[in-house]
Amino acid sequence: MQIIHMSDLHIGAKPHNEPTIYNDIIEAFNNSVEIIKQEKPDLVVIAGDIFHTPKPDNDSLRFVMTKFREITSFNIPIILAHGEHDTPGRRESTILQVISSALDKVYAPYYESKPSSSGESIYSNIVKDTWMKVRGLNIFVYPFKKMSQEKRKLLSKQLLPYYNKFIKREGGKSVFVGHFSIDPIFVYDAIATEDDLPEANYIALGHVHKRHIIRGPKYFVYPGSLYPLDIKEAEYKNKRGPILVDLSSDEPSIEEIGIPIRSNVIGDLEISDEKQIDKKIKGFVEVKRIQAGHKKPIIYLRIRMGKNVYSRVVLQSIERVGKETDVVIIPILERVGIKEEGTYPISSSDRNSLDPVFVMVNSLKIKEEVAKLLIELRDASLNENDEKVDEILSALSTTAYNDLKVWM
């Protein structure tokens, strides 16, 4: 019995409003599907955050459904776990449930709250609703719901022992799938510890974007994101691609299968004189472009600007150099030498001084991602689009929580 395990695809994401990254994320999954077709595993497990938003754009949705059909055409079932990006805040069908209903051999277990008629514990009912048998293998998919961190911890404390109880009761080979953090792998939003994980033969996890492979006493893996979504992830040196797990023996065999991705490089420059801007940026970019080879790299460029250097001039230079050298440059500007220091990311696209996003980023030092969400929130409110308002507020709360983790 062999399975392919992936997580955190984030199809549809466009960080920094950069279309190159949007397309690269799609290509990364396409390359992973080609590996699946070559390896022909018995089962594919994707442990959450298949999409970047609960309501993906039509192109992303069509692409994913096409790729799922390619996989299932080889008679390979697909198990999907829900993550925070796949799950709407409202009580409504999820995009994964819709896909599961539309495609054969694609399953997305999702616990629906309902009263117990048998007198059994609600936790027993949750396990039953999220458990299935595929080719003789017991698959248990831990449910994801939008709730506070404290409630999430409380739920895991009550629910995880029931999964362990069912795994032991059923016997045979079992796989537990979940989209959550555990301590000590990622402590800030961990809902459990390694000891709390059930005694499954293999534990397929998602949510943590850096790869972690633990080979015993409990065998569990975070595959990490298929493609780096920001500068922090670009610093990760782990392989990217599917995890191939062989459950034929008593202990699982875990193999990393790499996929080719575009070079994501990080550089630092200091600019104290505007006359140096073009020369310094172009010289640095040329070196990185040559190192990256034939495919143009994505360069996260951290620039420390002196007090007499205007960010507008730096951005214009980056725009020129990017076009001349055929690379994608994502600038992260830091003002130094003045009383109020701060770091703020700005995309490399052209900016108009009257653009409200530009004003919020440069004058108010608001992150560009947050600024764009605030503009979307304004438009959704004016259009009385309650569903969109809820979606944006959920995104804002996630962003704020992630920032809080960094500050802590």
Features:
single chain; 408 residues; alpha/beta; six-stranded mixed β-sheet; 11 helices
Characterise this structure.
The longest helix has 22 residues, at 149-170. The protein has helices at 19-39, 58-72, 95-102, 122-129, 149-170, 231-234, 277-292, 311-325, 356-362, 368-382, 386-407, and strands spanning 2-6, 43-46, 78-80, 106-107, 131-134, 137-141, 174-179, 181-183, 190-193, 202-206, 212-215, 219-222, 243-246, 253-256, 264-271, 298-305, 328-335, 342-345. It has two domains: 2-256, Purple Acid Phosphatase, chain A, domain 2, CATH 3.60.21; 264-407, no CATH class. With 408 residues, it is of the alpha/beta class. β5 (131-134) and β6 (137-141) form a beta hairpin. A six-stranded mixed sheet has the order 4-3-2-1-13-14, with helices on one face. Strands 5-6-7-10-12-11 form a six-stranded mixed sheet. The model is unreliable at 340-354 and 404-408 (pLDDT under 50).
Which SSEs are present, and which pair or pack?
Elements: E1 2-6, H1 19-39, E2 43-46, H2 58-72, E3 78-80, H3 95-102, E4 106-107, H4 122-129, E5 131-134, E6 137-141, H5 149-170, E7 174-179, E8 181-183, E9 190-193, E10 202-206, E11 212-215, E12 219-222, H6 231-234, E13 243-246, E14 253-256, E15 264-271, H7 277-292, E16 298-305, H8 311-325, E17 328-335, E18 342-345, H9 356-362, H10 368-382, H11 386-407
Parallel strand pairs: 1-2, 2-3, 3-4, 6-7, 7-10, 8-9, 10-12, 15-16, 16-17
Antiparallel strand pairs: 1-13, 5-6, 11-12, 13-14, 17-18
Helix pairs in contact: 1-2, 4-5, 7-8, 9-10, 10-11
